[in-house]
# Entry
Amino acid sequence: MKKNFIVSALKALWIDKASSLFLIEPYVYYQLQKESPHEFSDIEVAPFIRKSREDLTKASRYVDEKYDKYIPILAARLNSIHNMNHSQLFWEKALSMALIRYITLAHDLFNKCEQYFDPAKHICNVLSPVSYYTPLDFEDQRYLFQACDYGQEQLFSLYMNTFYAGTCSLMELDVPAIEADICHDGIALQKKSWRKSLQWTRIVPEIKQSIKKLYYVHIIGIRRNMQIGILGSFFSLENIRELAAKSKKRIYLLYWDIIFDYHDKQLDRENREQLSAFDKDFDRFDRFFFSTLKYCMPRVFIEHYQQIEKQYRKASKDYKSLKYVTSENWISNTYVSIYLAVLQERGVKHINNEHNAFIHPYVGSVATHIAKLSDQYVTMGWCDSLFPNIIRGASLFPFTLQEKYEKKYSILYISGAAGAKLCYYSGLYGYDEENAPKYLKFGQSFFSALSVETLGEIAYRPYPKDYIIKLKLYDKEKFLAKYLKQMKSILNTNETCKVQMLKSRIIVVDYISTSYLEAMLMNIPVIFFWDRNAYYLKDEYADFFEPLTRVGICQTDPIMAAGFLEKIKDDPLIWWNSEKVQQAKGEFLRRNIGEPEVMMEYLLMKAN
# Structure
């Protein structure tokens, strides 16, 4: 008997009354066990397709090769579709890191299907093309592919249509309105309304846009004199004000919102056919990826692109003295990326100020792509000669708070999230997909080695479930349920993490993120977990955490971490304020994080 080949938990596409299942990935099995553990008698679960550092490295290099192949093809076709003559660099910038993410998520599904699907052993239903969802922008697309069962089914349906057309039943489902659930930062969305005859759906966004523009441009009176625009850089308000004052407003926030009517979803079939056409030298993955473009390329790059670029070109003319733009959120914002491409074409340089976490030490090429797509890559304070445009800088992100609070929590445990899907092939994500079980096991082992007394002193801060997008997550708190029952409290995340840190005697961070940096910069006793078998470092950065592991700030073994916490928890300041700990902390921070004044001086120098 053939088994029903399953790629997601969307049961509407499962074979009716099928009792024998082949699940393409363990997370689907987890979902099934969570919802209906006894419904099916015969279940085969495919193992994780990447099992090692070498597997991840190989996958990353494969995506790099495909990116280099696809960029000139896409650039030429987008120019032809829109009757434009942009450089390849323009389209690289406009498509941004989102194209890497797109190729990665498509390759992940493709690779699993190539490895496991066998038409002699498997049967399945797939989506009909009339039920495909075409995303509005790359944020839409990321949700579709990384966080949505429907997106996995759509990719699988395109795979089957490309290689096994006619072998499975086509199913029509209601197309989800995903764009309504996603934040599209940078556009004033207009929705259809019965008031459309009165033009309210256009008037209201225009009024809001005019007020915002008045604040950014007319009241401040800096439009023509601005030399450095801040566009999606997460600088503190205090630092923005200081930059504006010291530069006499030659450095300030760059206005970038556009009004955009997204409800028209009529697809341009002819241009999408042109974009997705196969070349003679295409291999199987090339054919699969380009087949997805027909339905999955965001609408802002086909149907609505010309009006978007026109608005940004018009807006850019207001900033006649503009020489530089700082931006960090461009890597995950479609509209900022397009605006930067428009600005760069007229000679404005992009300063990529590094986001508030380290990417460069890990296996994978995310940092390399970011550097390549930036004119200048200003780091938080580290330097690497392998990146020719690196500038050792600092962050203007508000890592610290100056307020003082009474110590309320003996031990604050800051919990991360275990995700179902990687968005990049990077060692940075030591808690997602194949690493999620390792991450959950590390936490369980840590708590199992703590005494009942210590568990009772812990205030547990769960990860905000909808922090960026509604990701597919393992229910971490369910895995830790028997330990959570013994803890002092489960904290409400409405209070900021930094405030809770300042109220704590010692902090435990169970994933590598911004939190451990914030704690060290505020000089609060902290330990954080680093699983060497999940967060893969590049060979040249094998000693990246060495100063911190040497003194116990960075913990690599859950049992030893528990023992260490038991040892220092009664008076963590004795350990923390010791000369060797402060020296090690200082060594790591000096090597990797500069003083904010460094970035201030750098930007002020550029504005003179």
